[in-house]
Design brief:
mainly alpha, 2 helices
């Protein structure tokens, strides 16, 4: 990023932020779709049945724990690369 002037750095930062937001929204939408399709099957009421509610809560919790685990492993790998001097992209 040092080779970029300040305007280019701001533009790159803005694009990166937009990409992160888009990626987050994609993951969030997939989570909602997955849990809805897996758990909700009674459309005779405006509210979720208790078993549907429980299923949705377990589904979201499962996905959240999986995402946390992936993030932890990524951080561990990144730290190991930084310690060994092997910085990705260089």
């Amino acid at each position: 990023m040092e080779a970029l002037n300040s305007n280019e750095q701001r533009e790159l930062q803005t694009r990166m932020e937009r990409k992160q937001i888009k990626d987050f929204m994609t993951v969030y939408s997939r989570l909602i779709q997955n849990c809805f399709e897996s758990c909700v099957n009674d459309f005779t009421s405006k509210t979720l049945a208790s078993r549907e509610h429980g299923c949705v809560m377990r589904c979201v919790d499962k996905h959240q724990k999986a995402a946390e685990r992936v993030q932890l492993r990524f951080s561990e790998q990144n730290a190991a690369l930084m310690q060994s001097g092997q910085i990705p992209g260089q």
